[in-house]
Amino acid sequence: MAARWLFLGFMLLILVGKAETRLSVEKLNNEVITSHRDLAADFKEMYFKQILDHFNYNSLGNGTYDQRYLITDQYWKKGYGPIFFYTGNEGDIWEFALNSGFITELAAVQGALVIFAEHRYYGKSLPFGKDSFNIPEVGLLTVEQALADYALMITELKNELGAQTCPVIVFGGSYGGMLSVYMRIRYPNIVAGALAASAPILSTAGLGDSAQFFQDVTADFQKINPACRDAVKGAFQKLNTLAQQKDYSRIQSAFSLCKTPSTPKDIHQLNGLLRNAFTMLAMLDYPYSTHFMGSMPAFPVKVACETMLNGTDLMLALRDTVGIMYNSTGQLTCYDLYSLYVECADPTGCGLGFNSNAWDYQACTEIEMCFESNNVTDMFPAMTFTEQQREQYCLKRWRVLPRPGWLKTQFWGQDLSAASNIIFSNGDLDPWANGGIRKTLSPSLIAINIPEGAHHLDLRESNPADPESVIVARKKESEIIAQWVKAARKESS
Amino acid sequence: MAARWLFLGFMLLILVGKAETRLSVEKLNNEVITSHRDLAADFKEMYFKQILDHFNYNSLGNGTYDQRYLITDQYWKKGYGPIFFYTGNEGDIWEFALNSGFITELAAVQGALVIFAEHRYYGKSLPFGKDSFNIPEVGLLTVEQALADYALMITELKNELGAQTCPVIVFGGSYGGMLSVYMRIRYPNIVAGALAASAPILSTAGLGDSAQFFQDVTADFQKINPACRDAVKGAFQKLNTLAQQKDYSRIQSAFSLCKTPSTPKDIHQLNGLLRNAFTMLAMLDYPYSTHFMGSMPAFPVKVACETMLNGTDLMLALRDTVGIMYNSTGQLTCYDLYSLYVECADPTGCGLGFNSNAWDYQACTEIEMCFESNNVTDMFPAMTFTEQQREQYCLKRWRVLPRPGWLKTQFWGQDLSAASNIIFSNGDLDPWANGGIRKTLSPSLIAINIPEGAHHLDLRESNPADPESVIVARKKESEIIAQWVKAARKESS
């Protein structure tokens, strides 16, 4: 979901560097096209003139903004093949395009046009430029506006591209998967089906157990070795003991902090930073090294447990373990408490990306994530995040009061009996999985569980290291999507 | 739909007079309760603290307003019986409650709780009081906000009343019927089924023929007697001839106008006023006299044709015919051109009600009604209302640009295959009927056509003069609704 922007400093430099390699720039229908022929899929970067405020004709948003999208027709059976539309989530759209290779692989097989649309207020789709995160400008950042953006973009691009009769399938991972679900239930007139990978539509709607997330992070490490979980828990306990003794200098040296902590707030921040590394290791527990939301080795949870159980000093082991996440390059000589991790309204982290503001605002408004660790069902120190704490924070930071229950009202929560044509895929290694739909609900609301899968592994491109379970999942997804496309053609003919 | 507020001066005095007969006022859960024991159903008038802006946490609407609703539990099997929820449309909610007796009759049979919710910006549900129609305050008047109001109100009232497991059926007539459709497709998690009476969901979404409406008005008169249509057409032609001759004083005397017309604009206004009377006569062609959107005799179209064909002077006959609508009391000695009819973004009229502003704004934004008469397929003078004219008017009046296609994108237009549990009822006499769904689309998207029915006759209370077709329709509606309620219980248990 979110704890992803940690090494965005590094990552974006790489990505943007790539994205800026513009081989050609041309004008078509008021949109700037940029070719990126150096990328695996031949995406063109375009901009769509988008309505600023779909829900108020008389607001400050009485205008348009430039919404970025990536498009490739290299596999498209022009005017006939389906449209595969990625409902961009909380980040630069290139990052999702570069890490969702399954979609283009599938497009190659099914003759599809591929579009990756960037979510408003992220990447280069900033409605008010650098003022986008001011108050009240930030107010137009909502799930509903984002969905309406996609609905309008699909409708107009279909007309523009002569694709009026081409069925549209939406894809998304994580929050993007939630958006895919919402697109199908909100706009079935536009979208024939949705592949929602690792979409925690329940836990982010305030449904379920606030302890689930960190419990499932813990379970990943326990599965490798129960001693690993115990070691992590033990290390946090040692830290806690030192903190109670106010032995701050020992804490500094144990964790290689750049500055000596001096307050309970600093210790809280350190605990958050440490816990967050485990969140990321669990989410990104892929069977090969990746450069998505930071750089990770293959099987990072296994690597973490090896590190954790290597050596005799638990705190040093903990420091080195979180280093897999925070210091993958080995360049850092010390950890800066407040720059490596930013606490926000999402207890799984908002990170340091230039869009962390946007995600924080969403977590303060519609997206409900009061996840807590309790040191009983998980290996972390007890860190509460109650609805009251959320309110307090959000009022202070954004002058907004969250509205618990709204997402459930607006997007149905678990009451999905009127929905159809959605695949809910989840990886058992992913701490977000149990916040989503894990059981098939009807012949057209299909849960696909991937035992060896981390966070939306199925959306990633094929890899020799892929476990059998994700190969099977992708095959099933591919078949179902082909059926949806076929049925949609039949219906409209 | 709209051409209804003509005699609102009279009507509202009567209604509000009734509504103000407050027998008891008490406080419960911050809401004021008022009993109206003098009314047929024992409605209590209450207010719900409603979110002002559901779609922007940081707008001028960062607060609440008092939304009015009427409620009666006199027939409710408390905690078990269903909830019948009227999705209020463009007017004072008492007017709909007093003219939709079928809902309470059905509640008596099915043990239902009945709620009539007032639409924001109408009646007493003015979010910003007397400033509600200023710019930008009017900006929070949208279909989406109204639907979210109802979703939230239902959810919270269910909790408050111990009705959590009670299935909800929504009802609505005209624009209210459109809202019922939208509630079911948007919030099937909250609403088990919808009876949408006379809901022109296609024609108001820009789908269909712009000539249909006035053609169908004409057909009603033609059905009574083709000579009637010819007489109306002939009278308009005479008026046109006089106007071309600039014989304004003869026009004044023929039509008993209070002031002598002096410009083409005055003549245009007169044509609009005259045409509008026929719209109202056709819409309200009930088999007994009514006091809904003005006072009407029984079978007003028949009465109109008798008047039209009585006497030798066509223009005098036309004057007397529109008098059925404008001068039902016989008190007017002359017609004031600009006070009896107000031209607006709805060519079927916005009338003179204190909420005509609200409907005009809606017709300038989401609701598309570019209906035209052409003097070929209808009996009226050719009066265009193009999308360009609409734009021009709306920009000047409200500083907004309409967004054609938006309603179709947002609420699916004719692409209803993903919808379920909706009855689309229409009366063949109603000029709105052919702007709606006339054919059953699936086993749970059922069209009920009522040959002798005018505008949502089926929602009105039983009357000895009811034609057989509406009795049959109500019986069928009643059976289907009982099935929905039963199925919803089964599903949630």
Automatic annotation (TrEMBL), chains A, B:
Give compartment(s): Cytoplasmic vesicle; Lysosome; Secreted
Extract one GO cellular component term from the record.
Answer: extracellular region
**Which InterPro entries has this protein been placed in?**
AB_hydrolase_fold, Peptidase_S28, Ser_carbopepase_S28_SKS
Q: Which GO terms describe its biological process?
A: proteolysis
> What is the enzyme's main class?
hydrolase
* Catalytic activity, reaction form: Release of an N-terminal dipeptide, Xaa-Yaa-|-, preferentially when Yaa is Ala or Pro. Substrates are oligopeptides, preferentially tripeptides
Question: In the record, which residues are listed under signal peptide?
Answer: 1-21
Q: Which UniProt keywords apply?
A: Cytoplasmic vesicle, Glycoprotein, Hydrolase, Lysosome, Protease, Secreted, Serine protease, Signal, Zymogen
Quote the SUPFAM superfamilies the UniProt record gives: alpha/beta-Hydrolases
Pfam families associated with the record: Peptidase_S28 (PF05577)
Q: What is its EC number?
A: 3.4.14.2
Q: Care to name a GO molecular-function term for this sequence? A: dipeptidyl-peptidase activity
Keyword set includes Secreted: yes
- Family affiliation: Belongs to the peptidase S28 family.
Q: How does it assemble?
A: Homodimer.
Function text: Plays an important role in the degradation of some oligopeptides.
What name is this protein filed under?
Dipeptidyl peptidase 2
Record organism: Phoxinus phoxinus
The beginning of the lineage is: Eukaryota, Metazoa, Chordata, Craniata, Vertebrata
